Amino acid sequence: MWPLGHAAVAYLCYTVATRARFDAPPAHIPVLVLVFGSQFPDLVDKPLAWYLGVIPTGRTLAHSLLVLAPLSIAVYALASRYGRSEYGIAFAIGALSHSLVDALPALWGDTASAEHLLWPVTPVEPYETGAPSVLQLFQDSLGDPYFLSEFVLAAIAFVLWRRDGYPGLEPFRAALARVRPTPG
Length: 184
Hints:
- The chain is mostly helical.
- The chain has one domain.
- 64% of the residues lie in helices and 0% in strands.
- It has 7 helices and no strands.
- Helix 1 packs antiparallel against helix 2 (28-51), helix 1 packs across helix 4 (85-103) and helix 2 (28-51) packs across helix 4.
- It is globular, with a radius of gyration of 18 Å.
- The N and C termini lie far apart (48 Å).
C-alpha cells in the first residue's frame, strides 16, 4: 500500500476508535502522531533495505509485529508518563494498521505474503535483482484493484476528516499565523 492508503486506513481506524471512546472527533496532535505512525514502518524499512541493504526487503524489521507490538507498548508507556497516553494510542493504531494492511493481499491469494508480520521468525524472500525503484512499483500498481482501493479509502477518510473539523491542521495554521505578517 502507498502512503496515502496507509494514512487513510489509520485515520479511519482512529476516528472510529476516538468516537467510540470519547464521542468526540480526534484531537489535533494525536492525528499528527497517527499519520507519523502510519508511515513509520516504511520510513524505517525502505531505507534499510533499499539503500543500505541491511535487511532483506522493505517489509521486515519495522513491519514485524514482533517489533511493532513492543515498540507500541513502549511509546504508549512513555507518552503516558508525560500525561499524553492518547499519543501512544495514535502511534500504535497508525503503525499496527500499516503492517496489517500490507498483509491483506495475502488473504485473497495474491503473490504477496504475510511473512513480514512475524519476521525474523518467519523468513521473507529477499529481492532477487536488488531493490525496486519507486517508479517501477508505481507502474506495476496502476492496474491493481488493491492500489485503486486506496483512493476509495482516502475519499472516505477525507469525508470523515472534514466532518471531524480537519484535526491535525490547527498546529500548521497557528505556525503560519505566526510567520505571516498581519495586514495593516
